[in-house]
Amino acid sequence: MSYTKKDLVTAANLTKDEIYHFLNLAKEFKALNNSETKKAKSLYGKTTVNAFFENSTRTRTSFEIAAKRLGADAINFTASSSSTKKGETLIDTVHNIVAMKTDIVVVRHYSSGAAKFIAENTGAHVVNAGDGLNEHPSQALLDLFTILENRGSLENLTVAIIGDVFHSRVARSNIYVLKTLGARVKLFGPPCFYGYGGFRLSNLHRYARGDRGLGRHHHAAYPARASGR
C-alpha cells in the first residue's frame, strides 16, 4: 500500500491502509533520525517550501529538518516579510512560489480551509501543517504513532481528549484517525468546547466532568488547547 493522493490536507478521508502506510514510514524515518548519518534520498532533487502565514517554532523547524534529512532542498517562507504585507493575495503568493518549480508546499495558515483552497488551485503537492481551527493531520499521525509505540495496538483502547476541542485543530484530526482505526474516543469538557454541526461528533462520548466516564480502560489522554497546537 502506498499513498497516492496528491495532497495531505485532512485526516478525515484517510483510509486505514493509508494511515498504516504513514506509520510504517515513520518507523523507518525514526530509525534514520536516531542514526549517526541522518541523510536519505527519499526526496532527493525535490524542493519543499514551508509557507507559514502563522507563527510557529516546532512545526516549521520539524518540517524543515525532515525535508533536509530526506534529501530535499527546504526553503522557509515567512508571511510577515513577504509581499502579502503589500496586498498580494494568498493564491498569488502561492502561485509565485510554485512557479519556481517547487514540488511540495507545506502550509500553515490562520484561516480554516486555506490548505484545501491552495491544494485545489495549484499543481504542487500540499501538506496541511495546521489551518485555523480546522485540522492538523500530520500532528495527528504523530500522536497516533506515539500511542501505538507505547500501547502496541488500538484494540480495546479508549482515548480521552480533555479540553477545548472546538478550538483545537489537532483534536479534530486526532478524532478522525483514531475512529478510523477503531479506537473509542471520549471527550471531556464543558458543552461549549464540543464544536459545531460540521464536526462529526455523533458517535463520540462526551462528558462535562472528568469523574464521569474516566474508567480504568482509558489509556491515553492529551489536552486540547485553545492555540490549536
Q: Mind sketching the topology for me?
A:
Blueprint: H1 16-33, E1 47-52, H2 58-69, E2 73-78, H3 90-99, E3 104-109, H4 114-120, E4 125-131, H5 137-151, E5 158-163, H6 169-180, E6 184-188, E7 205-207, E8 218-224
Parallel strand pairs: 1-2, 1-3, 3-4, 5-6, 5-8, 6-7
Structure description:
- 32% of the residues lie in helices and 20% in strands.
- The protein contains 6 helices and 8 strands; from the N terminus they run H-E-H-E-H-E-H-E-H-E-H-E-E-E.
- The protein has a 4-stranded parallel β-sheet with strand order 2-1-3-4, with helices on both faces.
- Helix 1 (16-33) crosses helix 5 and helix 5 packs across helix 6 (169-180).
- It is globular, with a radius of gyration of 18 Å.
- The chain starts with 15 loop residues before the first helix and ends in a 5-residue tail after the last strand.
- Residues 216-220 have low confidence and may be disordered.
Number of helices: 6
Radius of gyration, taken over Cα atoms and rounded to an integer in Å: 18 Å
Please indicate the percent range of residues in DSSP E strands (runs of 2 or more).
Answer: 15-25%
Q: Helix/strand/pairing class, anyone?
A: alpha/beta
Principal-axis shape equals: globular
What is the makeup of the main sheet? 4 strands, parallel
End-to-end span in angstroms? 30 Å
* Share of helical residues: 25-40%
The average pLDDT value, as a whole number, equals: 87
* Order of SSEs: HEHEHEHEHEHEEE
Low-confidence stretches: 216-220
Count the E strands.
8
Spatially, the strands of the biggest sheet line up as 2-1-3-4
